[in-house]
Specification:
mainly alpha; 90% helix; 0% strand; rod-shaped
Length: 77
């Protein structure tokens, strides 16, 4: 987070088009700021959610496997 924040603050003057020739560099600054914000959002919020879904899927598969094994044992008796 600190690295992203530092890069964001460093590219903010470019995105706000300060200085000489700022109008020409503004699209680059906006792309950098937008990319940093998007990547930070994905890293902090979306990635943990994906891990939670994988964990729930693994638990569901485990329960399903146990149910099938129990059904096979009952059928064998």
């Amino acid at each position: 987070m600190m690295t992203t924040f530092a890069a964001l603050m460093g590219s903010l003057p470019i995105a706000l088009s300060f200085g000489a020739g700022g109008d020409a560099r503004r699209p680059l600054g906006l792309a950098v700021v937008g990319g940093l914000l998007l990547s930070q959002f994905l890293t902090l919020y979306i990635t943990p959610v994906i891990y939670l879904y994988f964990e729930r899927f693994q638990e569901w598969m485990s329960r399903r496997r146990e149910t099938r094994q129990m059904a096979k044992l009952r059928a064998a008796d």
